[in-house]
Amino acid sequence: MKDNLSKYGYVHVKNVLSKEEVIELRKLLDAKFNNKEKDARAIHAEEVLKEELLYLLPFKNKVIKRLKQSLGGDLCYFSDYQLMRNIAGNWHIDGGSELYKPYFMADDYRFVKCGIYLQSSNEGWGGSILIAPRGHKFFLKNLINNKLVRILIKNFVNKIQVKFFSKVINIEAGDMLFFDARLPHKSQWPNKENLKFIKVNENGTLTGIPTEHTKYAFYWNACNINNAEDFLINSKERAISIKTCSNNSKAFFVDYLKLCFPDDYPNSFVEHAKKNNVAIASLSRAESDVFKGISDLIESDEI
Ligand SMILES: O=C(O)CCC(=O)C(=O)O
Ligand SMILES: [Fe+2]
User: Fold this and answer.
1) Considering the chain, what percentage of its residues have pLDDT values greater than 70?
2) How far is the CA of 116 from the centre of ligand 1 (A)?
3) Which of 20, 135, 151, 214 has the fewest CB atoms within 10 Å, i.e. the most exposed one?
4) ∠ CA 148-236-247 to the nearest 5 degrees?
5) Does the C-beta of 217 come closer than 6 Å to ligand 1?
6) Is there an atom of ligand 1 within 6 Å of 210 CB?
7) Looking at the DSSP assignment, which residues form a beta bridge with residue 83?
8) To test ligand 1's pocket by mutation, which of 41, 85, 87 has the most ligand atoms within 8 angstroms of CB?
9) pTM tops 0.70, yes or no
């Protein structure tokens, strides 16, 4: 029997968190974001790893169990945490920078973005995402040899899927979604009535959403161990090649590439990873230190 991930490109895991856990997390995040700029869009690895309540979320039993079912027992996590607030993105695939990589259309490619959501999709303020079911597939793959043609066909089919077959995933606060890095998706936006109160900021966030409906989505990447190295190499390339004018994205990659497992992780993180038999993708000490150097330069505004 085919798993829902390979069939539809996504899996919805209900009630990963209890109502009480959701309330506690929202309280913590409201307080954290209160100290930031009004349109702050996310917190990343370094900050997440200071907060046990956040960095242990990927180790919830239900999460591990369901991911292992779809990705295989040799599960691997990236600590590229992104806790996003009031994000409003348009249609895209997360693996956009990997489209031309040979591994990206392999039959045994098993790489997903995991998201835990702290609000429901029916509140009218856009708490979830839309996806195009089955959009992760490369069609006619066996008939066509040319990589570029395969990509063009996928893009074309995706446009049709997005236009006619896309759907909102109906989630409750505390649910999890994980989806193939090749699956088209976009943020669920506030409904028409509520859009009147919304301002779209330059950084892709929305202001005007009432605090009790703030959209919090906690993301990280997971894969079968066989797909880890390729993604790590791609992340290194992106961290190095992104121009200095885009220091935000550069800082994002550098933020987790600079962390060497297990040395730079909190003890309870290491224990949970070991206990659950989850590998953590990491560069060598020497390579991590290079990215630590870049991170320091970004912080001191030197690049
Ligand atoms: O939670 C959302 O609105 C989607 C965010 C997203 O797709 C991304 O950050 O890649
Ligand atoms: Fe995305």
Assistant:
1) 96
2) 11
3) 20
4) 100
5) yes
6) no
7) 43, 218
8) 87
9) yes
pLDDT tens-place string over residues 120-150: 999 999 999 999 999 999 987 777 888 899 9
Ligand 1 atom with the smallest distance to the CA of 94 is 10
Question: φ, ψ for residue 38 (rounded to 5)?
Answer: -60, -35
Contacts of 196 (CB under 8 A, 6+ apart): none
End-to-end CA distance of the chain: 51
Of all protein residues, whose CA lies closest to atom 7 belonging to ligand 1? Answer: 186
- HSE toward the beta carbon, residue 206, CA cutoff 13 A: 26
Q: What digits encode the pLDDT tens for the residues 65-81?
A: 999 999 999 999 999 99
What are the residues whose beta carbons fall under 8 Å from the beta carbon of 44, sequence distance 6 or more?
Answer: 80, 81, 82, 83, 251, 252, 255, 256
Domains of the chain as residue ranges with CATH? 4-241+262-282 (2.60.120.620)
Please give the Cα distance from 204 to 208 (Å, whole number). 13
Beta strand ranges found along the chain (DSSP E): 10-13, 42-44, 75-77, 82-85, 111-117, 129-131, 167-168, 176-180, 185-187, 199-200, 206-207, 216-224, 279-280
Q: Is 214 in the pocket of ligand 1 (CB under 6 A)?
A: no
44-59: b (≥16 Cβ within 10 Å) or e: bbbebbebeebbebbb
Per-residue model confidence as pLDDT tens digits over 226-281: 999 999 999 998 888 765 545 566 677 888 999 999 999 999 999 999 999 999 99
How far away, in angstroms, is 9 Cα from ligand 2 center?
13
Report residue 161 as tokens. 């899927």
